[in-house]
Amino acid sequence: MSKTATAPAAKRRRRTAAARVLGSKGGEAKPYTPYKAPDSALSVATVKLLYALSEGPIVGPIDGRRSIKLNGTPLISPDGSENFPGTIWDFRSGTVDQEHIAGFPAIESEASQGLPVELKSDNAWTHAITDQQLSAVRVRLSWPQIWQVKTNGDQIGYRIDYAIDLSVNGGSYQTVLSATLNDKGTTEYERTHRIDLPEGFTSALVRVRRLTPNRNDSNFADLMRVKGLTEVIDKKLRYPNLALGGLQFDAKQFQDTPKASFLMRGRIVQVPSNYDPQTRTYTGDWNGTFKLAYTNNPVWVWRDLLLHRRYGLGRRITADMVDHWTLYEIGRYCDVMVPDGKGGVQPRMTTNVYIQDSIEGYALLSDLASVFRGSSCWNGSQVTMVADIPGNEDGYVFTRSNIVGEFEYVAAAYPDRHTRAKVAWDNPENEFKTQPAPVTNDELIGVLGHRMLDISRFGCTVEGEAIRHGIWALKSEQYEEWSISFTTGMEGRNVEPGQIICVADELFSGRANGGRISAATKRVITLDIDAEVHEEDRLILNLPSGKSEGRIVKSVSGRLVTVMADYSELPEAECSWSVESADLAVMRFRVQTIEPQGLHQFKIAATQHEPLKYQAIDTGARIDPQPTSVIPPGVMPPPANIGIEARSIVSQGISVTSMRITWDAVPGAIAYNVEWRKDSGNWIRLPRTGNLGADVEGIYSGRYVARVSSVNAMDVTSIWGASQEVVLTGKVGLPPAVAFLSTTSELFGIGIKWGFPAGAEDTQRTELWYGPANDLSVATKLADLAYPQADYRMQQLLAGATLFFWARLVDRTGNVGPFYPVANGVIGQASSEGRPILDLIAGQVGDTELAKEIMDQIDLISGSGPGSVNDRLEQAKQELEDLIDQVTDALAYDPAKPYTAGQIVRQGQYLYQAIKAVPVDTPPPAAEFWFNMGTIAETTQAMALQIQQNKASIETVDGKVTAQASALQSLQASWREDDGEGDLSDALHNWDAAAKFAQQVKVQASDNLAMVERATSLDAAVGQNKAALTTLEQVVATDKLATAERIDQLKGEVDDNSAAVQTVSQSLVDTTKAIASQSTTLEAIAGGGRDGTDEGDLASALSEWKNKAAIQITAKAQADTDGKLSTMWAVKMQVNQNGQYVAA
Description:
The protein is mostly beta strands and 1144 residues long. It is extended and about 125 Å long.
């Protein structure tokens, strides 16, 4: 093997000039080719990054190194391969006793302010150091390129001298480093120098000087930069209680420090001892103790932030100051699995958030509590949580008998009610980028219009959860519009914030539905007043212990009410009661605040609570609230003096009769509903209006009646006020039928025309109907066409498609005329003649230079001459077969024979290729000399072959380095009927059945050329029946253009029938134009006879058949930088049947 060594650029010998030959007819001397030295300035640097991930301990990356990304690319791809080879990842979960990460023996911090900066010979760079803990600094220098061009054009290396000085404690500068760069590089090159600092220094200055003057000449690339400075403290640190991630990788893989991202499971927190975070289940009763585990249940994350002493409020709030039982109930509610809207289920509420900044404690806890629709408060002795979740619906009863003063109600303001919501959430499928989840309350849009509510969902990474939160917000505004406040006595101590209470206010509900009991047993209650109580109603009592319970009523006798089950404790006299029936429910509110008011009094503020909304939020169930009042709504009087009159107006030059409806204003009305009818027909509603009149244009003669109702601001509607029946003269009859309807056959379509008769001037539109059968009852509307359009083209139909058509007119008042024709539809048929298609193609392809170019390309597809597709495919396939034959014909290894590199031998069932010259008596499988390239198993009846061959070379010709490599892979299986006379010598021939696969890949690269070519062949044959697929692919890129080409050929033969498909796809892009082209050939042959040989290309192989059908399609698109655009498309179709040839 020959070895070529290249001298460094600085020591390269000058070549001897070629001698010139003089003569009377001599040619010119060969021009000198400048030499370009190879790059010798190659950066070899390792980047070490230590990340403080989180307070520990944490679980860590979800899927190992697949969860670590650099600039958005994971370290490990889904197929298991490394995207950044050689990258080292270390992880520490943040325990107290964790070990330090190897490879990080120091604390390092890079100072990037003002860097990078160019370093010039007349201007040194200086950096001041004041941190006395530093052990050293590392100065990182870079050169974007380093080379020089000599006068003869040679590009070689260049030398730059520089120095680094250090001044300590204000002293003079001392040179601590003198260095030289004497190399050549066309890409960025970096160097790092460590400058140790003396112990006990108070201040220091680092100075970097360039000693070699700047050339400022285009023949020199000598730009030098100070790119970075890293401050170093030499110490191995464990960082207890801090989760760490360490990354080490080759710096040449990135131009700058990459952005790292980590998909992790975070903090391990305290959770209830009976809780399984993996399955989100709670086993048995909870004893109040905790264990450590990872969870994204927002309740237990909230508790961790509240109590942790290091990063939470744990130094001010202890565990015994927290209402854990309320948190437990809310936590269980969050873990319930609900539909995700996509056919699966998901936890009701989760939180996945990375808190990176210091945040005011209460604000952060409030944000986190909003995840489970909660808010924290102090109940007098503990921190408790108020959350909008289902609770005890038999809440503590308040009536007018146990409050001081009155109930004060406040309804939600109009601007505070919304009909649409846009909930922001972080999509993990899109790099956790924030995107909106839209939610709409269609029920309210018609009343309130479009009123948008923007919500930012904290820590939300689940779309279904974001949508549920938006539904919760809109449903709460719709069904919980009331707020209440009142003052009570000592009974205020029996309720807490977040608790549901029942309010029975007879002034609001319209009848007495609450009071105090006079006497009671556990099942029979004596009420203090006569009340409307029925069987199956629900009686809710406040019990002496301060809780409330409800029971179903069994029977009623006067004031004695018997319930179906005992109350859990004996009610006492003066306890409050409330009754809930099918037609009147008590109003439920959720307590928000409780404020002491003097001695033994408390003021309670609460918001309305609708228990039915939770199923609507989770499953989309319909909400049908029970009535909370039997008071009829306020009554609006109907409008008076409703009148009707006919008017004649001119619209677009046409006189049209209209009906004018008028009425008097109603006090308090903001809008009116208007309806009219003709000849006792159906009522027709007009749009709601705020005016005192409405018009109906284009009326027909007949008897008309109008009615109007008034609407107030509370959407209370009056009864209808009607007009007297009035006979108006207008247009008579329905719209007429169209004057005519006709169709014409068109290429791949049907043209339709119709006419308007006299008296159809008020036509609004024409309806076209069609169907495949002559049956109007099953016809489909084709189009609504505005007057006066009178033609329509139905396109994209199959040739010869037959349809039936009808038409009718609709006037401006919505009256619909009769169909035309009445019975049988007008038949229409798309053209089925071939001549228009042939004429169309011939006219576009036959007479232009463009046609010649396309036809030339078609000829290259089906032809067999040089440069044709068949010729190129045959060359590629022949090269594959020659390589395979070289392997399969290999002789058995001869120990007495030496072998040269590349020779192939057999040894048993294995095939070996010589790697280099092999001396005698060195049999396979000696790895130093032989490469195992496959196996071959054969008998006189069967053969199985598997081979693999790889080649690589690097050549230098006239100073140009070219790297080439190729790979061959082949599989082959064959069988034949053994007559007992065969031998292994012809085991590769005359097979009755054979299956072959072969693939060769070639790659080549030089300074201005990169090329990849792959040829693939699949062949299967049983007797004379054959199938083959051949593919040739090639991509080429140079410093001036880029091309890509793919050729696919499919063939099949059975007896005298054959079929072939061939496709050629090409793209070419250079500095002035971009071209894309594709050509396809389809050929099918049946019957006839040919000579039976297998030789010849696609065109000649099909030329002998009697019956043949073929289609060839060529398309090309070109765009030039000068603005010129061109496209071309051509089709060539031919049929050869019984000696008759037709072509287009």
